Queue: 2 jobs
Job 1
Amino acid sequence: METEEGGVFGDRMLRVRHGQWLEAPREALGALDIHGPEAEVTLAAWFRRDHPEPWQAIAGVWDESRDKRQYCLFAHARLRTLDRSLERVPCADRLHAHVSDVGEPTRGKEFCHTYATGGTPAPVGVWCQAALVYRAGRVELWRDGRLDVEPDSNPFPAPGGLFNGGADGAVFAIGANSVRGAMGNFFGGVIAGVGVWRRALSVGELARLAEPLARLNAPLMTARA
């Protein structure tokens, strides 16, 4: 993969071509294997989506092929779930925070429907900071340092904790996830950083995650000037 100047945790960031991804094998996950009925997690990413295809996996532990779902951030999914009916309705250019306590699709559904959907569009070419936060039986999608509220979809109730995939569970992948027997849901764009915490960050901590956006947007502002 190519790198570019910039980044959040260093001086480089990753250019991810559509069809590329990074992964840590299951046996090397260590602290990234977050599961259990009392589990908490914060997964944050700083990224710019440059490819228009929907359902792009940004990062997480999410294997749909073998029903080994735990947690994952997605960009540009076209459907959001209504929390009371679990039905999905159209949306566009939204960010999504997926979690699962069972690993497999939601009972009676073809896919997992337990995910929060933000209310703010995240179109192609725009730098975003997104965070999946799971705590106290609900999943939240934070956008640019604030809870990106969407009535009936964010926050989203998800009792039961996070699925334990065991020794043969999902890998931690950046830029894709396993679906229908192969890696797919490819991300296309630039990722400036990914961070995972084994707890739900505080409101203040989540707000501070957005601070690098000014630096990431600086070259764009200079070019426009």
Job 2
Amino acid sequence: MSQRLHEAYGALPDGERRIADSLLGNPAELAVLTATELAAQAGTSNATVSRFFRRLGYDSFEQARQQARRMRATGSPLYTGNSAPASKRISDILKSEIDVLEGTLTRLNPVTLREIVQAMATAPRIRTLGYRNSHFLAQYVTAQLGQIRRAVSPLLLPGQTQAEGIALLTEGDLAVVIGLRRRPAGFNQVVEEIAARGARILLMADQTIREAPAHATWTIDCQVDTTQFADAYSGAMAVLRLLAIETRRALGSAGQSYLEEVEALRNRLQELE
């Protein structure tokens, strides 16, 4: 859409140029506005809106809006967010974070949770993986589990290829794979190859995931969509924190002893304030 707007911009009449200015300033609004609302916002008519989208190569305004909605659903930052006034943004953020937390945690299956915790407590090795924004979530769970048990590390180390990291997995290992939307191309194949090594897989994803759950041992659905720009990861973070808490409980005295060992070593090295 944006490319079409820029290519056509120089030849647009005034009314259609105002529509283009409105959409270029906030492309996300195309997914939610009606043709009448867009016309009013640009100070023009519905007929001008129709001509404008036909000039861009669409059959109709509705076809363009459906394309914008598809892009919004995949998490494209060009098509997420709204233009709420500053006075309302804090309350909007609070509400959206609550919605994301509730939408994620209320869908957790207690039986599945117990199975995952048991795997985290007993797997010979745990390897974590996340790309792009999912990477920091993978780092978080690595740090939390690494305080209470041995053999927890990222699947991919700096300088390694994906094949080298995956090849280290063996049967019985646990791979925690976080794949929230806007995943890189080839993500599904990586999950499939991990499964082929015999490792159990905890896949944390959102509702846009396809195919990869077929290869996972467990899949947790995390809500990330909000009305604001940038996805919300508070739900996924809460799940990972819950898993770390429950894994420490499952490890019992062994987890406590290891944590004490780590803390004593930190003190000797004077690593923390």
